[in-house]
Write a structure and sequence with these properties.
It contains 4 helices and no strands. It is mainly α and 137 residues long. The two termini are 33 Å apart.
Length: 137
C-alpha cells in the first residue's frame, strides 16, 4: 500500500503542474484569439480552460482516494499529509469560485495550487522505504 500512496501523491503533484500549464495555455489562447478578432464573451472557451476545469475535478477525486489509502498504510504522518492535501484541495475549489467575483484572489488560487503540489510530493517521498544496509559478518 505504500507504493499506492506514493504513486497517488506523485500523480497529484504532477496533475497540479499540468494544471499550471493548462491555465497558461488558456490565457495565451485568449490573448491570441482576441488579437485575431475572436469575440471573447460568456460563451467563449478554449482547450486550456476546459482541461483546467476537468483536471481540477480529477485532482479532487485523487485527493479523496489518497486520504482513503492513507488509512491503509503505515507511512509516517501519511494520514495527516493526505488530510492536508484534501483540505488544500477544498480551499482551492473555494478560491476558484470566489475568484470569479474577486479576480485578485486568483493569485491565492495559484499559490494554493503550488502548496497542494508541494504537500502531495512531500507525502509521496515519505512513502519511500529506505534501503537497508547489510551488516558485514
Amino acid at each position: 500500500m505504500r507504493a499506492v500512496y506514493r504513486v497517488l501523491g506523485q500523480l497529484i503533484a504532477i496533475a497540479v503542474v499540468l494544471q499550471i500549464a493548462s491555465i497558461a495555455l488558456a490565457l495565451f489562447t485568449v490573448d491570441k484569439d482576441a488579437d485575431d478578432g475572436t469575440a471573447i464573451g460568456a460563451d467563449y472557451s478554449n482547450f486550456g480552460q476546459t482541461y483546467h476545469s476537468i483536471a481540477g475535478t480529477v485532482i479532487g477525486l485523487l485527493a479523496l482516494i489518497f486520504l482513503i489509502v492513507s488509512f491503509l498504510t503505515d507511512v509516517p504522518r501519511g494520514r495527516m499529509l493526505a488530510g492536508i492535501v484534501v483540505g488544500l484541495v477544498v480551499l482551492q475549489f473555494l478560491l476558484a469560485v470566489v475568484s470569479f467575483g474577486v479576480p485578485a484572489l486568483g493569485t491565492l488560487h495559484a499559490i494554493n495550487g503550488l502548496a497542494i503540489a508541494g504537500v502531495a510530493g512531500a507525502a509521496a517521498r515519505r512513502a519511500v522505504v529506505p534501503k537497508q544496509t547489510v551488516a558485514s559478518a
